[in-house]
Design brief:
The chain is mostly beta strands and about 100 residues long. It is built from one helix and seven strands. The strands form three sheets. The chain has a three-stranded antiparallel β-sheet, with helices on one face. Strands 4-5 form a two-stranded antiparallel ribbon. The chain is globular. The N and C termini lie far apart (about 40 Å).
């Protein structure tokens, strides 16, 4: 089966599908989220910076975060300077991850 072509797209089920496969590891600047893209099913890693403040408010757990596929697989039609399949979704970082 060929890889899904690049398309900037979201779906209500993407967030939960990613969370179901996700592991969280602390990094020097925040969190590394590793899991499977809910659209193309390739492994991916997404870095979330939590150690700074945005607009004077904490940038940590409990905040809704936009995410996107960062897989390294080839997707037809993807811009040369991009990565992933184009899928995107929002998640809320759990307080336990901080």
């Amino acid at each position: 089966m060929p890889d899904a072509p690049f398309e900037e797209i979201t779906d209500d089920g993407y967030a939960q599908a990613f969370v179901d496969t996700c592991t969280v590891a602390k990094t020097r600047r925040g969190l590394g989220l590793e899991g499977t893209c809910p659209r193309c099913k390739h492994p991916m890693r997404f870095e979330v910076v939590t150690e700074i403040k945005l607009n004077g408010t904490p940038n940590g757990p409990g905040k809704v975060r936009p995410m996107l596929c960062t897989c390294k697989s080839t997707h037809l039609g993807r811009p040369d300077d991009d990565e992933g399949c184009g899928a995107y979704w929002n998640i809320r970082l759990p307080a336990a991850a901080s």
